[in-house]
User: Fold these one by one.
Assistant:
Number 1:
Amino acid sequence: MIKTDVLIIGAGISGLAAAHYLTQKGVKVIVLEKEPNAGGMCRTLHKDGFLFDLGGHRFLTKHVEILQLVKKIMGEDLVKRPRKSMVYWKERYFGYPLNMHDLNFNLRLTDKIGIFKSLMYEMTSRLVGREKDINLEQYLISKFGFYLYQSFFKQYNEKLWGISPSMMSSDWAVERIPNLDYKQIILNVFFKRLTSSKSLYDDFYYPQQGGIGQIAEEFKNIAEKKGAEFIFDTNILAIHHDKLKVLKIDCLQGNNKIIFCPKYIISTIPINKLIKVLNPPLGIDSLKVDEVLKYRSVKILNLMLRREKVTDYTWIYIPSKEIIFFRLQEPKNWHPNNTPTGYASISLEISCSKGDEIWSAEDSVILKSSLKGLKKIGLNISEKEIIDCFSSSIENAYPIYSLNYKQILSEAGDVLQRIENLSSTGRQGQFKYANMDEAIKMGIESAKSISEYV
Ligand SMILES: Cc1cc2nc3c(=O)[nH]c(=O)nc-3n(C[C@H](O)[C@H](O)[C@H](O)COP(=O)(O)OP(=O)(O)OC[C@H]3O[C@@H](n4cnc5c(N)ncnc54)[C@H](O)[C@@H]3O)c2cc1C
């Protein structure tokens, strides 16, 4: 039986930030992780001098204290990098987020007319008053008009989420999709009133040595120096409680059972998994939680190439369902240190669900389909140029905001709140489409809230 002040479950960036905060205060912390290393989704894979993030990650935040903290732990290794993101749509490249300059110059006349008509309809139907937007489809149509929805947003969302936008809550889009004002679209598309295309080149922060994973590594190293103990390759079996407090936690490391007896637990694992391991079960049907609070997975094909570069861009979005990947990242354009001199690399992100055809496919099958897709978007890569390739995968990449997710999430949150020495936090623990800065903030906030227990 291992005793500690705080047991943190999950060594992703939120768990690491919590460990960093608590060890600075002299609290005894153990961090438990099912994988062999720390970082969670903010990890960088190293292969033969090539660095691949688990999906390109840029660090940006509006929280000054989080920026200061990350700058402090990273020192001069955190640098500003230019973002150059594009979308391949209607067989052309546009700046992304869709910007006025490109819509104005790149769109065909028939598309401009389609956009104009549907936006005029949206504007007039707003004047006469209309039902409130309740699902993602309604939200996107009201913001961008039916034409842009049908030809762009519908395909992209169906490809990413695997379900129709009419089956999803609009919360995701409200938080994430940059808002184009329709009056602005009309003025720019038709009357050539140019606005700046600055968004194409916005800056972001990025580590210059070890990919995005360097931030997680630094958090871990500092916490470890201050006494945090990390236990990897270890999975949670059961969290035993008396309905008010956690009493002990059973874990499995290889064939060995380990029992922990912490004063407090910070869990950053998916909330549906946490509900499932509670023993006895607590007033909510774990199958129902599992069914509603679902995640979309991502498979990433990483290619190491015998050529100088593939594109000038950090990333490219591809809404077309005819192309297997929804996003292409070029690590060299994130930071030159991500790729050995004279070589290039790309990561192709493919949306899927755990256990489906793509999730289970051999790399060779995904490669074949990806090469076809690359050709279609004008980036022809021959097999001879490929030095090596491998896939990586993220099981709980994106929380799917279904129409009734809020109700079940709130019920699950109420149940968990009854156990006073347990907090569920981070992107997975809160079932929140949060960026890494928010995940860091959530981890620190959970750590701050437990001072009375330690
Ligand atoms: C494709 C992609 C691109 C992204 N791009 C960006 C970006 O550009 N900028 C940005 O700021 N954010 C980005 N994000 C979001 C960012 O990755 C997350 O906000 C952040 O990593 C969440 O950290 P976390 O610690 O909350 O969760 P995780 O990183 O998921 O950490 C949870 C940890 O718990 C562990 N765990 C799970 N179950 C168990 C168990 N049973 N026992 C023990 N351990 C367990 C997991 O292995 C994991 O290490 C992106 C995410 C994805 C998927």
Number 2:
Amino acid sequence: MPRPTLSVIGLGYLGATHAICMADLGYDVIGLDVDAGKVEALANGTVPFFEPGLDELLAKVLPTGRLTFTTSYDDIAEAADVHFLCVGTPQRKGENAADISYVDAAVESLATRLRRPCTVVGKSTVPVGTAERVAEQFAHNEVELVWNPEFLREGWAIEDTLHPDRLVFGVTSERGEQTMRAVFAPIIDTGVPVVVTDLATAQLVKVAANAFLATKISFINAMAEVCEVVHADVKKLSEALSYDERIGGRFLHAGLGFGGGCLPKDIRAFMARAGELGVDQALTFLTEVDAINQRRRARMVDLTRELLDDSLSGRRIGVLGAAFKPHSDDIRDSPALDVASRLHRAGAHVTVYDPAALANARRDYPALAYAESAVDAAAGADAVLHLTEWPEFVQMDPEVLGAVVNRRNVVDGRNALDATRWRAAGWHYRALGRP
Ligand SMILES: NC(=O)c1ccc[n+]([C@@H]2O[C@H](COP(=O)([O-])OP(=O)(O)OC[C@H]3O[C@@H](n4cnc5c(N)ncnc54)[C@H](O)[C@@H]3O)[C@@H](O)[C@H]2O)c1
């Protein structure tokens, strides 16, 4: 089979990474987005978000001529053999359900222009049943629909795209499977396991994975709540649990909990979809998973207030971290910025620093103050809050920060600072779930 030409529709965190990586594997790839600014930036060699190594990989593949960008659906409909759907599926405003309108719009734009046999591959995270509906849209064309959920983690997106734990192909025919095996051959040949299944299962795998991960995080955070009242240490508790191979230590770190553009909205959309399907009882536990996660943010604010003699009004607080997690500039549903905003609303003067997410934070949270370094954010602070676990915060010298603060109070929202070291440097160290 000659090498197919690929299109990637939607050039956000998922799509841009996928397009660049597939071009690096040797495919001709056309990336499409309705955002002309994004298309122009990528075509000029700039990745419009922070993802380690992606700028360099784009610089490597652009000169080959294999990767081009467009805003025109006519271009991709004419040129591509395989179309990857990578548009966003955010939470609907005021509801738990996912907003599928971007998927519907992209599908309509493509379906009305297709004049040749091709394969459409859904990668966006969607409510189960969406793929079947999308398939109907293409029924009149010679179009094969496949669902290929994506599990990449921001911060490790290249590694996860080129060396995934597994590939899942939801197909309706032998031809769909063969196309996917051919397109992903360079990855499959490295030994990556492939699970071939139906459309419904493929869509469910993604949300099931995120529901499990969210549950594991909220489980240990629930243990942290119990630890706090009996003066136990959740960090030791999770360490002891982690040696049990049946449990494992990953995603078992108590702290401020999860956020970002995936886990929170995916578990809510999963619950909403289960409700529509009449199996809401199966997922009611996710309501509690979500609630535990939200309580951690409130507890972080309370802990800070306790540390500051029960008053936040007029206090200066330095916040370390704005991104929802380290190695990313993504601030969607960021626990760090949620806590910073709550403190600001309670009357504190909050100054935020983040190594990568300052521009996004400034844009979406203009009421907060920002600094260009951790030391500047902490200058004159009555308390410093560690809210995103960037290596530069974890490795920070408590003496250096101690020299600029008003009071040596630190709240470690990620249970990642060396408590002994900070206490030895005269800091009053507090953390979630620990004495
Ligand atoms: N970000 C991740 O780590 C990640 C991981 C796995 C799965 N996903 C899933 O992948 C999907 C995309 O997520 P993301 O984080 O890349 O979102 P994003 O918001 O960063 O990117 C979505 C892109 O789609 C574009 N778009 C919207 N409507 C369009 C249309 N009609 N035609 C073409 N482009 C259009 C937007 O302009 C935007 O650039 C979501 O379903 C998400 O749940 C994301």
